[in-house]
Structure formats: C-alpha cells, structure tokens
Amino acid sequence: MTARFAPPLRGLRARRGSTLLVVLILSVAIAALALSAIYLRSFGSLVARGFERERDFRYAAEAALALGKSRVNRDTLLAIPSSGYGELFADSTLTDAGGVAIARARVTLDYAYTGDTSGRFGDFVTLLATASDAQGTRHVRRLDLTAESFSRFAMFTNTWQAGLSYGNGEFIRGRAHSNGNWASSGNPGPTYFDTVSAVGTIGGTANYSGIATRPGAAVIPFPTVAKLAALPVHATAGSLNFTPVSGTATRATTNGTDVSGRTSGSAVRGTRLDFVTLDADGDGAMGEAEGFLRIFDLAAGIDTARLRADLYGSPVPFASPVLQTQCGAMFTIGGHQEFFPVATFKQGWVKTRIRTSTYPTVSAAQANAYGGNTLAEVLAVLRLPTARCFPVGSPWLLLTERLVDNVNCGQASPNPSNGAPYSWAAGPTCSAAVQYGGQDTTFTPAPRTCVIDQTNATGRCTGTAVSLGAWRAASVAIAPASLPAAVRQADERPYLHGLAKPVNLESRGVVHATSGPIFASGTLRGTVTLYVLGTVVLIDDFRYDRDPSAPDALCRNFLGIIARDNVMVADNAMNRPRVITTPAGTAGNTLFLGPDRDFFLDGLTMSLIGTVGVENYAGSTVTNPASMCPKTSTNATSGGCLNQTGGVIEQSISATFSGSGTGLRENRTVDPCQLTNRKPPFFPSTGRYLENKYYEIDPALLSTGASVAAWFDRLRG
C-alpha cells in the first residue's frame, strides 16, 4: 500500500525565537512586580516611621501643655508675664507613660498673659509647646486657659461659723463652695441647684435637686486687700476714686427741733452713692454710656440716719422730722408719678392736686384726712398702698428739700434771707404752674430741711432752713456735655459722673471709695466694680435697668461690690417694717415704707475680711399679715426675701434670719452672665485656670525666639 502525506498549509511559514520573546516579556513583568512590591514596602515603612515620629512630636507637645497647665494651676508663686513671655522649660526631653524618653523630640514650653492683659474683662494665659529635633521645629501646639473668676459662684465662704446652717425655704441656684465645712438643716431643708463643694464636710438635710456634693475639695485661695491694690489706680484713671465725708458734729436744730436724724449723741456724717440710668442722648434706648453715678455728702450736724431713712422708736413718733419730710406717698397724676411728703398734705394746693390722681384715687374727704399734725392724719397717709420713704437728697423729696420763698425760687437758690422759706415751688418762678410733687427729675443740688408750719397753706417753715448736704460735682471730663430737657433739668448735668465711654473716655469700670461706710442703692446700666475700703450698706433695692435673666439682656449689666469689711442690707424703714402705732400686731399699725416687701439686689457682693449679711437679722418686727418667703410658702419673715440675682463671696458666712418671723430669708439665683467668661471689671480670680481653646500652629511661623515673641505680642489687646 502506498503511503500518502498531507501537503503543508498554504501561507504558513516557520517563526523562529517567538517563545523566547514571550519568556523575556513575562520575566520583565514579574521583575517589575517584584520591584514594585519592594518599593511599596519600603515606602510604607518610611510613611509609618514618619507617622510614628509625628506622633512622638505631637505627644511631646501635648504632654508639655499638660505639664504647663498643672504648673499654672498649682504654683501660686509663678509669675506670668503680661509683656514678652516666659519659659517653663526649654529644649527638654520628656518621658512617656511608661517612663521611656521620647526619642528625638526636644520640647520648649513658653507662656504669657494674652488678650486683655489688664485683667478688666478676664485673665487669659496662653501656653505654647514647641517640639523639635536637630533639623528644626516639627510640631507646635497652643493652649489658652481662662482664669476662673470668683464671679462664677452663687455662694462662696472662706470660713463657716459653727452653729450656722442653711434652712427651710432657702435656695441657692448656682455653684457653692466653702473652704471650711457646709451645713444644712430643717425638714425638708434648703434646696441647692448646682454643685456644693467644701474642703471639710457637707452635712445636714437638704434637697440637692439631682446634683452631686464634693466634700474634701481643694482649698481655693481667698482674695486679699493687697491683691486688689490696682483697683484704686484704675478708678483714679476714670476720675471715679473719691474720699467720703466723715466726722461727728453737734446735731443740727431749727426752731429748737432736732432735724439731724439722730436722737442722741453727736451726728455722724457720711456719703451716699446713687446709681442712675437716663436717656442722655434722647434716642429712646439705654446704651452702656447712659449709666451714671451721683454722690451725696451730708452736711456737718446731719446724721447718717437721714441717708438711711431710719425711723427710731416703737412706735415711731409721728412728728419725727425724718418721717415728716422723707416719708409720704406716691400719686399718679397726668401719667407721671409725683411724691408728696407727710408734712406737705395740709397745703391747699396739695389737697387739690392729689384729687386728680388716677392711682391711688383720692376723694375730697380723704384729701382732708391726710396730713402730719396728728397721728390719725399721718396714718391715713402711710396706710396708702403707695406709701414709702426716700433717703435724704432724693429728687423725689422736692417739696421738703428745695425750700424757697416767693423771690428765690430757683433750683439752686441760696437760703432765703428775707424770711422763712416756703416748701412748694419747683422753680424758676413761684407761679401755680410749678406746683407739683417730687419726681425723679426734680433734682436739687444742695437740699435743705426745716420744720414746716402745716397750718399755713403755703407750707412756710417755722424756723430757718438747715443744710442737709450737697451733691458732689463731677469732673468736667466725665459729666455729659448736655441733656435733653425732656429727660433731666439742665442743673443736674454737672452732678452726673459718667461710668463708661464715650462720656467718660478714661473709665475702666471701677468706682473706689477710700473709706466707709458707703450707703448705696439705685439702678445700674453698665459693667462696674464698686470697691470700698470699709463697709457697704445697701439702703434700698439695687437693680439693673433690665432683668438680667431676660434672654436679650445677657451680660447687658454686671455689678461687683467689693467691701474690705462688711456688705450689709440696712435695717431701715425701706427694707424692714416699722411700728407706727400700737398695738403693733393690729393690721395697718406696722408698715413697710419701701417699694415692696422684699429686698432686691442684682450683682455680686464680696467681703474681704467680714461678711455679706443683714443688719439685725434676729429682729422680729412683723406686719399683719406677715411677709412670707417665698410668698406662696408658710415661711414667715420680718423683711421678706433677700432676692439676689448674682453671687455672694465672703470671708465668713453669717445668718440672715433667726427662726420664724425674723430677718430676711435668702432666695438667691444665678445671673446667666455668671455662666460665661465675663466678670465685673478686674473682679478677682480664684487662681485656677480652665481650658478655653486648644489647637495646632504652623511650625514655620514659630521657628525662632523673635517669631515667638512677635506671636505673643499679636495675641495681646
């Protein structure tokens, strides 16, 4: 059989070396993959080592900041520079939590005061941690610390008197601390709404409203007079540093009647501060520059009893000059309030005018029943719902302190020389058109007093008018340039001491008195610290121009009262009831002669060596019906509630009442501004610093000592 072979395919030719080429390509690809893996692994190791080094630098910087924060808070002798900067340590090696030195990282920690370095609105310390190696700066961290102010406390006492405790019906709605013990008592006891801490023990029954107590807390150093030495300097810069009048003298008399206000011994002079708010530019809004201070100095022979509106005796003699000339009733006439002192009600024009009042309404028979000649007439006035007293010098006392005759009717006329003066003219003429009651605008620069002849329809004095004192003129630089006629009489302008810019361009918000006691009250607009080297006596309510708890009034006003000695609520006719006639327990015989049955205070009160308290806290004079605190409770008091929106800081805690029907019960609440970083100007700090801001800085900006110094300078105001 013949063998047959298939012919070769057409076009197919032999290709030599193709297999080798494929092998070479595959080899190169595999090699490239291997090299890539090696490279990526090496790069990953480099990145990991870089992150590890960055972590070391960051850890070192953060550790340095932690050490610095601890040092600032613990070392009370550490001097923090307000210019330039200091170093806590330089080019140092730190160890980690395991005690191992942080490789390569060398740390420098700088520190200084920043922001408002004067301390007016708060102290801030900035810590700057720089971590570097031999090649230069690698990592920079900044920590800002805010100084904790005593203004954050609702209650702070350096010592706690044995036997004292907070009791039923008392409330503290903010942070509380004692450098001693803390005691509560009663059933159910007081109510606390924020943390209560004490260096010692916290005992007794109380309602803590879900909060914790902290016994065994650290001591918070209490401020001293020496630490506040800069405050008088700041007050001087704003022309608000003054010396009160003082001294004693024989009691002043007129026509044989003692008009000094003191019933025995020598008369003691004193000074009163009256804070006022007025629309100085007439734009309808109350800016911070529209808060002012008036300063009244008693004349020699006139006692501080007249500054306080004290009424002596139980019952009070109805012929008392203080009662006759400083107490009376308000009437709403023509939409405005007018005040008529007791001694003026027998004047014919007064009887006619008060019958136009819309509140309280007055009939002809009632008008004829008012007066000061008999006890019945006086009681008829003082039982009116608008009855009250005012401190001497008040513009409301126009009719008994601006004594003029039918020739000398001007606001600041000298004591008339042609006979005994009248008491009715408001000036500048003696026409019937100016016969009206005292108002907040009827300011008298140099008020006088006398014994008024109530049998005379013109209200003529029975003797010579006696000077009560004078309002102190302000420096021209801090008085308003002008006042709208509809707001205040022009003669008042020179006696208004501006508290803020632009009226007082150099004001730093500090008012200082070189001695005490100082008698204070009024309405504040602005941010002010009142510092008195003595005692401060609160003779009447002391309020802000707006409710500090209103959402749109946050930090609108902030007051700090600092007394070297005590801060006391006066036991006077405006804060506590007085027996006008007996039996005292009969309704209408024991009366409040103030604007309300409670005491109101907006602001912080601090006593450096004494206490913040209540005069005659155990006093048990009560009205019928009795005052309750709170009003819906059964906790009877003498003076109602001590309603303070702010805080108390004191060397030693003291009682404000002593059992049922005595004193004033505390009913304190926190000003929302206390929960911010704000404080009254230069109000003292606790020495502790709280973390505020924390972030990273570009290392390139801080590579040299000069750049660090320039950086700190940029942070200062």
- In this structure, how is the largest beta sheet organized? 13 strands, parallel
Count of discrete alpha- or pi-helical segments spanning 4 or more residues: 9
The total beta strand count reads 41
Rg over CA atoms, rounded to whole Å, is 38 Å
Beta-strand percent range: 25-35%
The gross shape turns out to be elongated
Instruction: Round the mean pLDDT to the nearest integer and report it.
Output: 88
Low-confidence stretches: 1-5
Structure in words:
There is one protein chain. The chain is of the alpha/beta class. Among the domains are: 42-149 and 686-714; 155-215, no CATH class; 321-467, no CATH class. Helices cover 15% and strands 27% of the residues. It is built from nine helices and 41 strands. The strands form ten sheets. Strands 5, 6, 7, 9, 10, 12, 13, 27, 29, 31, 35, 39 and 40 form a 13-stranded parallel β-sheet that branches. A hairpin with a 2-residue loop joins strand 3 (124-133) and strand 4. It is elongated, with a radius of gyration of 38 Å. It starts with 17 loop residues before the first helix and ends with a helix.
